[in-house]
Structures are given as structure tokens and as C-alpha cells.
Write the C-alpha cells for this entry.
Amino acid sequence: MSRVLPAWRSVLYVPAHAPRFIASAHRRGADAVQLDLEDSVPAAEKAAARDGLRQAAAIVAQAGADVLVRINRPLSLAVRDIEAAVCPQLKALTITKVDGASHVRLFDELVTECEAREGLPAGQVGFVLLVETVSAFLAMRELAEASPRVVALALGSEDFALDAGMEAGDDTLLAPKQQMVLAARAAGVLPMGFIGSVASLDDEEGFRAMVRRSRRFGFEVATCIHPRQVAIVNEEYGAQPEALDWARRVVAENERQAAQGQGAFRLDGRMVDKPIVERAQRLLARQAQWLSRPAPSAP
């Protein structure tokens, strides 16, 4: 089993017990839709939401979006959630309150059994790990490397802040989120989230500025709690036309210079060396991923 990172920018949250949100999710333009079994679903409705997962997954996947399912803790709920969630449409499970590397490997074993039962390729289902405790935070790289199923790492701000005894503010969470990005990069997985917080759903310009700043800090994919956020996240976490043009020119010029035995070179008055070339190549590779997948329909 080898690690294959998905081509996500936006992941839209949808409560798994809400038929009207499920019915329209495929029209929102998100790269992925996350059917939530955890916090957004009342305890009395979790069983019904679990029972409806297969139908819900087929509905939200119909326009090409990947399907994720966020599962519960404790283990007794998580096992039932996983057994219900693994189906042909499922791309990844979001593992909440991840506890340690053994926790990740335990779920890896269970998902492998479920994939075999469903006749799915081994490794089809990836893991998004939610770091929500101090102990998990201190073991982030180990968690991300515990299984090749792990494709993304995220910090659960409110739960982490509660466990750390701090307030969940942009300033208090800045350093932990930066460290999470570095741990994800070191493990070769996607850093998921924002560097700040969403102050108001009505402040779209403020949200855009926060997403743009988050991209500068290294985030590449984020969850959206409202459909209005999807287009902004796709644009800001995607490839801007001017950035693509620059990347193509950097790569082309690097090939010309390399053919002449040259390393670093100047382009448009800027010095270009190996890190800049690799950044350009990475951007073009992600763009190729986005173009190669079905485009989710927009409203």
C-alpha cells in the first residue's frame, strides 16, 4: 500500500442526518464532501445517520466530489461507524480525537477487513487525522507516519485548546497550527485547516483574507462549514493564473538552463534556484491533479 495524496482544496461539512443538506451537497462545487457522524449529529440520531451512510455517499458523490466520513469516539461508536462507512464511494475517514500510533494502526486493520468484505482495493480508504489533545499534538509526526492511509493532518482547535488549558484564539493557536503544518510536511501528508478562525459567515472578504494568509503559511486544504465558503477556498487554495504562468516559465527556463549545464538563473530580474523550481513543479503537479479529476458541479 502506497500513500497517494488526494487533490483536495475544499471539504464541505454535511451532517449525515440532514437529508436536505445531503441532497444539495453535490451542487456546491467542493472537491470533497464530509458526511459528519460526530458533533453535528445528536446522540439520538447517530444510529439512523449511520444506517443512511451508503445512500448519502452515493448522493453527494454523484457530481464527482470525493466522499469523507467523520467518525465518533469512543471506540464502540467508531467501529460501528467504520463498518457502515466503508463503501465504493468512500475516499477517506476523518479520525477524531486520534490517540496514538496504535490507534491509527488499529483502524487501519479494521478498514482493511472492511475493504476486503466490500471487494474494494486495499488502501482505497485514506485517513484524515484530527489532533485534539496535547498528547496527540506532541506525537503528530508519529501519528501521520503510522499508516500509509494517512493523507492529511488537522488540528481540532476547540478541543485542543480545552485540553491545553488555553483560550481558542488566533494568537494562542498560531504556534500550534504552524507546528502542525511542519509535522504534516515532514510526514508527507496534507496540512488541513486555516491559520485563523472564521469570525462571521457574512464577512466574506475577511474570510478570504484569512484563507489567503493561511495559504502563505502552508495550508493546502480546508473544511468549509457553509457552502458560501467553498468557492473562496477553492480559489485561494487553488492555483492563481499568474502563479501558474510563472511556474510554467520557471520550469521551462530551468530545463533550458539545465541543458546548458547551468543551475541557478535569473528570470524577470529574480534569482531562481532549486527550491523555487521545486515549488513551481509542485504547483503544476497539483494543478494536473485538479484537472484530471471530475469537476464538481457548481450551483
About this structure: The chain is about 50% helix and 15% strand.
